[in-house]
Amino acid sequence: VMTLAAEIKTSETIEDEQLLCLTIEVYEDALLALERQDTPLLNTCLRNRRRLLERIKSRSTEGWERAPLDLLQPLFEELRDAEARFIKALDSSVNRMRDEMMVSREHRKARQVY
């Protein structure tokens, strides 16, 4: 993942397909980081995601370079799916942590009573 960050920073000429594929990979890495509860990896993934999404946004404004948009369409769909999977996993992770905190709080209250 660290090499990916370097690649994103240094490579000014990422091709359209490569840009979308890298973004999909970052979402997959972020999912793994969530599963493993690996906060440093998740933070790295989120930073890379931000950089890549900024690039996608500027490409969308300036125009995609080589590939016709109909050729990129499957990659856009895959990217949307990867983003949806990540958001769903993030939601359930946050809900799980919230539940654990509530249970912990209930235990503390119960102990204070005795």
Describe the overall structure:
This protein has 4 helices and no strands. With 114 residues, the chain is mainly α. Helix 1 (2-10) packs parallel to helix 3, helix 2 runs antiparallel to helix 3 (39-62) and helix 2 (16-36) packs parallel to helix 4. The longest helix is centred in the last third of the chain and has 45 residues, at 69-113. The N and C termini lie far apart (49 Å).
Please outline the major beta sheet.
none
The secondary-structure element order is: HHHH
Spans of at least 5 consecutive residues whose pLDDT stays below 50 are none
What is the tally of helical segments? 4
Find the structural class using helix and strand composition. Answer: mainly alpha
Helix fraction, binned, reads over 70%
Radius of gyration: 19 Å
Query: Given the C-alpha coordinates, what overall shape results?
Result: elongated
Strand content: under 5%
Report the span from N to C terminus.
49 Å
Counting DSSP E segments of at least 2 residues, the number of strands comes to 0
- Average pLDDT over all residues: 85
List the topology elements.
Blueprint: H1 2-10, H2 16-36, H3 39-62, H4 69-113
Helix pairs in contact: 1-3, 2-3, 2-4
